[in-house]
Write a structure and sequence with these properties.
The chain is of the alpha/beta class. It has a domain of 90 residues. It is built from 10 helices and 12 strands. It is globular, with a radius of gyration of 21 Å.
């Protein structure tokens, strides 16, 4: 992990207390994120994948402190966001933004879309009047919308257009980092590639770094430089995109990759589908040892007792598994 990275996450945890009784005293914790570490460079896209409920979105929210971390450090440009006061955090948020999953819920239906896109600039006292309107027009054009749209309301736009508006608003303060939480999963298949290509073009022209959260492995493959795989609050494998998709090492990653539909490639058509047994354990009561051992087809006795750490292997992949050489 480089100190010169744009973002360094060190042993980050988010544990939600489980209340009990009239006084709501905590009698346990949901370990949504449980000791995650990674780095992100300027202009890089890190894809974060895993099943629903594995902690991906909670991790993204914790990085921006939309939820409070329970432990660990979030170093953004060398500054620990986890230790900042509300006022200092407000200033740091100039440089980081978020694109949420649902463009329908991301825009205020009572505000014109021009007002929504320009709101960050107005709230921070950066622009007003004609200068603000000119900036909003510039942002609209940057994401493929025209100036004639700025006085309309969200219900007058399609899902793809609304997500373009959300992206325009995220760009308003010229951020360095954007957390993209399932940015195309709520869109029609026909417009997903358009939004992904827009994100790629913006990254190239503006030097943006993306944390791309998704359960869609084809989306992650299209846009990511590196990929991290999460299971039950922990990263179990991390590698550059091509290595991970060509040679997944962790048993959980191999099961995920075997589920990717590919009617074109004969090798993939003939590949055996790996079906995991059992259900994902509760994050309030994770298994001892390796979190994945209760569903792992190759688990050994040591997997039930000792939690593996994320270790660098000879091919450059980081894997948390006792059985991967």
């Amino acid at each position: 992990m480089s100190n010169k990275s744009l973002l360094n996450i060190d042993n980050l945890a988010v544990h939600f207390p489980i209340g009990d009784g009239l006084m709501r005293r905590a009698n346990g914790y949901v370990k949504a994120v449980d000791g995650v570490s990674f780095s992100l460079e300027k202009g890089e896209t890190l894809g974060l994948v895993g099943e629903s409920g594995c902690g991906k979105s909670t991790l993204g929210n914790a990085i921006l402190r939309l939820v409070e971390p329970s432990a660990g450090h979030i170093l953004f440009k060398g500054q620990d966001l986890a230790a900042l006061s509300p006022q200092a955090l407000r200033q740091a948020r100039f440089h980081m933004q978020m694109i949420f999953q649902d463009p329908y819920a991301s825009l205020n239906p009572r505000m014109s879309v021009g007002a929504s896109v320009g709101e960050p600039l107005l709230v921070h006292g950066l622009l007003k009047g004609e200068a603000l309107r000119d900036r909003v027009i510039s942002l609209f054009e940057r994401v493929g919308l025209g100036r004639e749209h700025i006085d309309r309301y969200p219900h007058q736009f399609s899902g793809g257009q609304r997500q373009r508006l959300v992206i325009a608003r995220a760009l308003a303060l010229n951020p360095s980092l954007i957390v993209c939480d399932e940015p195309v999963s709520a869109l029609d298949v026909s417009v997903r590639s358009q939004i992904l290509n827009l994100l790629v073009e913006l990254q190239r022209s503006m030097g943006l770094a993306y944390l791309l959260i998704s359960h869609d492995l084809s989306v992650v493959r299209h846009i990511s430089d590196r990929v991290a795989v999460m299971y039950l609050g922990r990263i179990v494998e991390m590698a550059d995109r091509d290595t991970l998709y060509r040679q997944p090492l962790h048993p959980y990653t191999r099961a995920l990759m075997s589920a990717i539909p590919d009617p074109v490639s004969r090798a993939r058509r003939n590949r055996q589908r790996i079906v995991l047994s059992g259900e994902v354990p509760s994050p309030s009561n994770p298994p001892a040892g390796c979190n994945f051992h209760s569903r792992c087809p190759i688990a050994k006795d040591q997997c039930t007792k000792i939690a593996p750490i994320l270790e660098l292997k000879s091919n450059g992949t980081q894997v948390a598994c006792h059985l991967v050489e």
